[in-house]
């Protein structure tokens, strides 16, 4: 059974669903949960407009703190032991999928749970997918949780 589960959060509905699935698995297996929020401050090109990189970093970290506060509260409510962290990519050439892989290895996790928007076709190609990039290099099982909007859209044939 799993002893440590890493759940990747980004504040989206899909990642909130991933948190609750991770909590369910952690309760069933009596595993410890490690919730992580990744900050990629280089994601905005300076050519997209003028911005203060330090101010952007602060805003991204604050978003992470909010998501992780909710994760800690959920862990307490469900009686799941765990911890949280904000991790920052190492530079503009680094990406969240690689950062997540390093975290999983460092934490010795046996399972990764993450949300996915369930994009496909040209939308996936244009926007890319952290989940897809991570799954391609993962050394441990990965549980992907679609956002409820995506799941409903698929069942209705949209």
Automatic annotation (TrEMBL):
InterPro entries in UniProt: Rossmann-like_a/b/a_fold (IPR014729), Universal_stress_UspA (IPR006015), UspA (IPR006016)
Domain UspA: 1-146
Protein name: Nucleotide-binding universal stress UspA family protein
Gene3D superfamilies from the UniProt entry: HUPs
Family: Belongs to the universal stress protein A family.
